[in-house]
Write a sequence for this structure.
């Protein structure tokens, strides 16, 4: 039988990207959010290489943000 092992490393910084939708006022926010989420969904992770998470911060207005955590 197999044994589960968790390996953590201090230098595995998560991927962090930012998008500012205010730069594209002609695109509806809901459409832009859907497109960014769809792009993120198809990006694979390599299970043998950390980190296995990524963050995308999306600014939708002067006082509004969305955080996509994958």
């Amino acid at each position: 039988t197999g044994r589960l092992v968790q390996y953590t490393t201090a230098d595995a910084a998560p991927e962090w990207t930012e998008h500012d939708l205010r730069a594209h006022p002609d695109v509806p926010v809901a459409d832009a959010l859907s497109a960014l989420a769809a792009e993120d969904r198809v990006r694979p992770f390599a299970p043998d290489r950390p980190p296995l998470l990524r963050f995308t911060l999306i600014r939708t207005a002067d006082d509004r943000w969305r955080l996509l955590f994958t």
Summary: The chain has one helix and three strands. The longest helix spans residues 29-42.
